[in-house]
Design a protein that fits this description.
By secondary structure, this protein is α/β, with parallel strands linked by helices. It is built from 12 helices and 28 strands. The C terminus is likely disordered. The strands form 9 sheets. The protein has a 6-stranded mixed beta sheet with strand order 5-2-1-9-22-21, covered by helices on one side. A 4-stranded parallel beta sheet has the order 13-12-11-17. A 3-stranded antiparallel beta sheet has the order 6-7-8, with no helix packed on it. It starts with a strand and ends in an 11-residue tail after the last strand. It is globular. The longest helix has 21 residues. Helix 5 runs antiparallel to helix 6.
């Protein structure tokens, strides 16, 4: 008798945890296949520190083959799920296509950037969901400071040293806090005549609206104390190459616009053709699709009933995705008769932590509000405990960053046109003449003309992009 086959789509917080749980529970009594565009799990909350240079990029990536023993990894992007035929169709990194049959399916494809109908956003803004975007942002910011140092026109110099972040949720707040420290160091090194200026925008009334007001005030105080221009109740009305027009009518000359306004489920979720709740697949408390007991969904792909607050759904956060992945893995194993009894998803709030760079942070572990060095120690301790790997390397990077100057250099590995904001796969940089990938949801597009951004050059062929729709956590406000 053949062994049952479980296919997991996506290796984010939910998919990775589901795969790890299944590998432990099935113990070679089932075949587990993990389909993912990359061969690593990305620990998103530490991504702002990669952009700021305090962590090396590989520190926040955890090898799938190296940590998921007994799980078969398939590199590729799922572009279609046939629920009736029980198959998943995908495209591999070199344009080939493949099909995976399953007895059980776990959808944990995560989320992508949420776009708003703001003129110029897709063309001039960049997001912060994947490693390529973090590497691009660091290069871009470093380049702007270096160009400003040799600029004769004071207005152009000031524009290059003005950086606008939209979205004051987890990601936007941490990006502004971490990158402000980086640009101050670069400015001193290059003896800039002006201090770099960071502007943080959000339509919400306060920074980190997801957190208690006391923690929000702590983050706001730290940001303003460092010189970050925090503007609540304000957003972007139009983006151009030369700057951004704000909703209050002010035009801010700038060459940098970072888009952190939130996320939406991966386009594959809608393509499944099942009932949705705000773009997420509706599931029961056991994470199963109604009428499809062989299909499970978790993380940002799923609208999971919040049993602690009847009538609502759990938010799209890493904490929920990580826990739901474990429950999904346990329930899949139980459905195959290979594990404990199935159980509904219930959660207990462990609190939140926001790393503001240096020794500063805002945290409320188990509901206890903390700030200053105590919060910084708790936040870093939490990240080390939550990381599935690389703990010693991350701790070593933090130690070295505390005693040695950061390397302010451009690597030139990621160009502007290779990390479009309207991408269905922010974890992958676009390549000239690359494969179509997620068929039916991507289109070919030319890279920007030469001179669109200093230091960037047009690609020699078409670049695939997607049609617009619409530590960090996957969801930001």
């Amino acid at each position: 008798m053949s062994r049952p086959h479980v296919v997991i789509v996506g290796a984010g917080f939910a998919g990775y945890r589901a795969a790890r749980t299944l590998a432990r529970l099935t113990r070679d009594r089932a075949d587990v296949t993990l389909l993912n565009p990359t061969d690593y799990f990305l620990y998103l909350p530490l991504l702002p520190q990669v952009a700021a240079g305090s962590l090396e990029a590989r520190r926040v990536t955890v090898s799938l083959p190296g940590t998921l023993r007994g799980v078969r990894m398939v590199l590729g992007e799922a572009d279609h799920v046939d629920l009736d035929a029980r198959t998943v169709h995908y495209a591999d990194p070199e344009g080939g296509i493949g099909t995976l049959g399953y007895d059980r399916l776990v959808l944990g494809v995560g989320s992508v950037h949420k776009l708003l109908p703001v003129p110029g956003i897709a063309e001039h803004a960049h997001g912060f969901r994947g490693l390529p975007e973090a590497l691009y942002l660091r290069d871009h910011v470093t380049r702007q400071v270096e160009l400003a140092a040799t600029e004769d026109d004071p207005k152009v110099c000031a524009a290059r040293c003005t950086f606008v972040v939209v979205g004051a949720g987890y990601t936007g707040t941490e990006v502004a806090a971490q990158m402000q420290l980086l640009t101050d160091r670069l400015a001193r090194r290059h003896r800039l005549p002006v201090r770099p200026r960071w502007i943080l925008l959000d339509v919400a009334p306060r920074v980190l609206p997801e957190l208690a007001e006391r923690l929000s005030r702590t983050a706001d105080r730290v940001l303003r104390g460092r010189g970050v221009d925090v503007r609540m109740g304000t957003s972007v009305k139009e983006a151009t190459h030369d700057g951004v027009l704000l909703t209050d009518g002010e035009f801010v000359p700038s060459r940098t616009l970072v888009w952190c306004v939130g996320v939406r489920p991966d386009p594959l979720v809608e393509a499944v053709g099942q009932p949705l709740e705000r773009g997420r697949l509706i599931v029961d408390p056991y994470l199963r699709l109604p009428g499809r007991p062989e299909v499970f969904a978790c993380g940002d792909a799923a609208a999971v009933p919040d049993l602690e607050q009847p009538g609502s759904f759990t938010p799209m956060t890493a904490q929920h995705a990580w826990r739901q992945g474990r429950v999904a893995g346990e329930n899949v194993a139980a459905s195959l008769g290979l594990g404990r009894r199935r159980r509904p998803y219930r959660h207990r709030d462990l609190g939140f932590a926001v790393d503001l760079g240096g020794a500063r942070a805002a945290a409320n572990p188990f509901g206890v509000p903390l700030s200053g060095p105590a919060a910084g120690a708790v936040t870093r301790g939490y990240h080390l405990a939550a990381l599935p790997g690389n703990r010693i390397r991350v701790a070593a990077d933090w130690l070295l960053d505390a005693v040695l100057p950061r390397q302010g250099v451009q690597l030139g590995l990621v160009r502007s046109w290779s990390v479009p904001l309207d991408s269905a796969s922010p974890e992958l940089p676009r390549v000239p003449g690359g494969p179509e990938g997620k068929q039916g949801r991507e289109r070919a597009a030319q890279p920007p003309a030469a001179g669109h951004e200093p230091g960037d050059h047009p690609a020699p062929g078409p670049v695939r992009r997607t049609d617009p729709p619409a530590p960090g956590e996957p969801a930001d406000g």
